[in-house]
């Protein structure tokens, strides 16, 4: 139920307009980080303040909202953000990817392919893909402006020289629309191929760093790599212990203190659907 | 002529660091700029290498394909591309010119990757080749620059600059800070590399021995002006200007 003491979706209308302008600019220049006047939100930095502001600016009364954290709908971050929007907007919420029109996420992209009528909002802690290589922000902005991205390959080179393979497994840098290199937020590189030519609008919000960026529907998104060391996603020897999937991203769960462990899908909705589907078929 | 500087002026506040310097340098020529500390030689080097915009004057460079260009009339992207391909810049302290947190191989390969080389094997082969050309052991290419001595770091910095086959290299006191035997070896290497590759080089130094060993021609600077210039041997053996005479006579003989 909507709490009448707050404006719809918590933010005031002028703030939402400001954020929408930043979003429009971000959509116009895929992968470019647009600065915006990030507001204080009633949750700490690192919990998704950027994602919440983006969601609050695009959500409408007819939207159906899904919030996930590490692929799951029932983790603390997902639960508190979902409740926040229930109280401030009164919109319907769901745990089912297929029913959602707006999905806010941290660390994962749902396994079920997204559609044209969906918008996905990513929570981003570090929007600058060059930050760990070049600490000066004036310099990183210039590098983006001039398209000087050789440094990212220096990082990948270093990975191969040290470990024999590209050891970056999450927040794996991507080239968007052949122009801007973008941090895809800390999703596993397993999810990188889902960014490419996605029918859904993808929005990224970084609250502390005050940046918004976007990948419009059907945009080319390539993961950086070398010709002789191509981009590869993680693979598991196991199948999900609950639904038997061999295609999804698996989490390792320790089950006891005697070395017992099992692998289960990180996407709880995907896993649940497969289990109930199997139950119906039986 | 590969680079021509005319009437370069640069002031910091009221103090003129470079006050109207002109010179040109030809392909394959090594030019030394000597003078005491504060004479404006490093500022001049920064101006002609496009790192610092002069208050007045022009710097023209003969590009590989597009004729003579005024480097400050180029866009920033073009100027930076030029600096990464046709030019090299060797800093006095290797820490300034190297990426200390990545391996020697990555340091040498960086320019190749910046130019779009995307084949790991080829980058590695090229880096290994250049390490041996500057007389370093290619087996150490995965070590951090921190694992190398001062002289080795300087060699690494040179290899990193030469990997794109530049035609002009700027060097700011490349041998100071090294002990004399290492200095001698590095000078030897620089001399053979410039000859072998037909490199043009502008070397800023306060060490007249470096100028004598490497340079064909030299400029003597004092208070932002060139007081004397000519062939190296001529200037050092028969200095005309009182300041040059003082400079030459102040060299310690062991």
The proportion of residues forming helix of chain A, as a percent range, comes to 25-40%
Name the poorly predicted regions of chain A. Answer: none
The total of helices of chain B stands at: 10
The major pleated sheet of chain B works out as: 6 strands, mixed
Straight-line N-to-C gap of chain B:
39 Å
The CATH architecture of the largest domain in chain B would be: 3-Layer(aba) Sandwich
Label the overall shape of chain A.
Answer: globular
How many domains make up the coordinates of chain B?
Answer: 2
**Total beta strands of chain A:** 12
Overall geometry of chain B: globular
Low-confidence parts of chain B: none
Describe this entry's structure for a reader.
The complex is a heterodimer of chains A (282) and B (254). Chain A has 282 residues and is α/β, with parallel strands linked by helices. Chain A contains 7 helices and 12 strands. Chain A has helices at 13-28, 49-58, 76-89, 137-146, 150-163, 192-195, 268-281, and strands spanning 34-35, 64-69, 92-93, 102-106, 119-123, 174-176, 180-182, 201-206, 211-215, 221-223, 250-254, 261-265. Chain A has a 7-stranded mixed beta sheet. In chain A, strands 7-6-10 form a 3-stranded antiparallel beta sheet. A two-stranded antiparallel ribbon of chain A has the order 11-12. In chain A, helix 1 packs across helix 2. The radius of gyration of chain A is 19 Å and the shape is globular. By secondary structure, chain B is of the alpha/beta class. Chain B folds into 2 domains: 1-40 and 55-86 and 167-254, Rossmann fold (3-Layer(aba) Sandwich); 98-165. Chain B is built from 10 helices and 10 strands. In chain B, the strands form 2 sheets. Chain B has a 6-stranded mixed beta sheet with strand order 6-7-8-3-9-10, with helices on both faces. A 4-stranded antiparallel beta sheet of chain B has the order 2-1-4-5, covered by helices on one side. In chain B, strand 1 and strand 2 (15-25) form a beta hairpin. In chain B, helix 4 crosses helix 5, helix 4 (104-114) runs parallel beside helix 6 and helix 5 (120-133) crosses helix 6. The N and C termini of chain B lie far apart (39 Å). The mean pLDDT of chain B is 91. The A-B interface holds A 142, 146-148, 150-151, 153-155, 157-158, 160-162, 225-229 and B 76-77, 80, 99, 102-103, 105-106, 109-111, 113-115, 118-121, 123-124, 141-142.
């Amino acid at each position: 139920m909507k709490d009448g003491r707050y404006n719809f979706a918590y933010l005031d209308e002028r703030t939402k307009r400001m954020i929408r302008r930043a979003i429009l600019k971000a959509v116009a220049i895929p992968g470019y980080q647009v600065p915006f006047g990030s507001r204080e939100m009633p949750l700490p930095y690192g919990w998704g303040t950027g994602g919440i502001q983006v969601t609050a600016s695009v959500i409408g009364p007819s939207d159906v909202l899904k919030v996930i954290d590490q692929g799951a709908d029932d983790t603390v971050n997902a639960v508190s953000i979902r409740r926040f929007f229930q109280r401030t907007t009164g919109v319907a919420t769901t745990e089912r990817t297929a029913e959602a029109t707006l999905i806010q996420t941290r660390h994962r992209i749902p396994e079920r392919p997204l559609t044209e009528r969906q918008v996905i909002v990513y929570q981003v802690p570090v929007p600058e893909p060059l930050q760990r290589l070049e600490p000066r922000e004036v310099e990183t902005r210039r590098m983006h402006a001039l398209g000087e991205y050789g440094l990212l390959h220096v990082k990948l080179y270093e990975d191969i020289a040290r470990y024999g393979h590209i050891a970056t497994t999450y927040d794996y840098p991507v080239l968007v629309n052949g122009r801007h290199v973008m941090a895809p937020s800390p999703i596993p590189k397993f999810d990188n191929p889902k960014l490419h030519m996605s029918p859904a609008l993808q929005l990224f919000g970084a609250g502390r760093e005050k940046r918004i960026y976007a990948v419009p529907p059907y945009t080319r998104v390539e993961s950086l790599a070398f010709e002789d060391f191509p981009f590869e996603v993680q693979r598991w020897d196991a199948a999900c212990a609950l639904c038997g999937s061999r295609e999804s991203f698996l989490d390792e769960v320790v089950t006891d203190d005697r070395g017992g462990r099992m692998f289960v899908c990180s996407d709880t909705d995907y896993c649940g659907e497969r289990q109930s589907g199997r139950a119906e078929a039986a | 002529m590969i680079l021509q500087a005319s009437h370069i002026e640069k002031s910091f506040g009221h103090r003129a660091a470079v006050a109207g310097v002109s010179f040109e340098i030809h392909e394959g020529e090594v030019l030394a700029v000597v003078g005491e500390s504060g004479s404006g030689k490093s500022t001049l080097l920064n101006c002609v290498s496009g790192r610092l915009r002069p208050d007045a004057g022009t710097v023209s460079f003969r590009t590989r394909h597009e004729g003579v260009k005024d480097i400050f009339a180029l866009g920033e992207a073009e100027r930076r591309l030029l600096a990464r391909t046709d030019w090299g810049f060797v800093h006095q302290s290797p820490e300034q010119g190297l990426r200390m947190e990545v391996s020697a191989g990555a340091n040498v390969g960086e320019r190749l990757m910046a130019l779009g080389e995307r084949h790991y094997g080829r980058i590695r082969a090229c880096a290994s080749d250049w390490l041996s050309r500057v007389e370093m052991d290619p087996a150490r290419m995965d070590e951090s620059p921190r694992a190398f001595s001062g002289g080795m770091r300087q060699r690494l910095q040179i290899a990193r600059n030469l990997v794109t086959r530049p035609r002009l290299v700027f060097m700011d006191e490349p041998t100071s800070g090294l002990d004399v035997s290492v200095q001698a070896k590095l000078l030897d290497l620089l001399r053979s590399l410039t000859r072998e590759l037909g490199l043009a080089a502008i070397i800023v130094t306060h060490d007249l021995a470096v100028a004598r060993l490497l340079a064909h021609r030299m400029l003597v600077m004092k208070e932002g002006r060139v007081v004397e210039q000519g062939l190296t041997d001529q200037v050092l053996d028969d200095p005309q200007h009182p300041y040059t005479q003082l400079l030459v006579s102040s060299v310690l003989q062991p």
